[in-house]
Write a structure and sequence with these properties.
Blueprint: H1 2-19, E1 34-44, E2 55-58, E3 65-70, E4 75-81, E5 86-96, E6 99-104, E7 109-115, E8 122-125, E9 128-134, E10 143-154
Antiparallel strand pairs: 1-2, 1-3, 1-10, 3-4, 4-5, 5-6, 6-7, 7-8, 8-10, 9-10
Amino acid sequence: MKLYIYLFCLAVSLAGLSSCSKSSDPAPDPVVVGKWNLSRIRFSGYPSPFTSLNGDRVSSTYNLSDVFSIKNDKSFTETYSNGVQISDSKGTWDFTNNTLQLTFDDGSNETYTVDTTQDPVQLLSSVTSATDSLRATATSPVQSVPFKYQFIYTK
């Protein structure tokens, strides 16, 4: 009888031990965590006769450098340079449905979209409208020409 009680207690103990599990593994880092470098600028919306200006250009063509370091603790830093001045910024971030929302310490916000269909994955800024003063030919008058641009970052 003692043997049966002993085996019963042993079985209950083993069942109890096997039902305990480790805490669940930590969630993987969101795709946005890491170092993002400005790799190109996408221009669009240039009208005729300036349509040849539409397309992607390497950011170094314009002497621009921009690096975001997105950290797992929901903070980020940014170092931006236009070839003359360098500025450093920091803040916090939120990531939902492939949208990265950056909130800078000065209260300003920027929104980026993560494009996971590209290899490597891309971080896309919002499309911004701008104008430039251009000449269609060397002898034509300068005219104000609307266009759009978007910054594209890769890890």
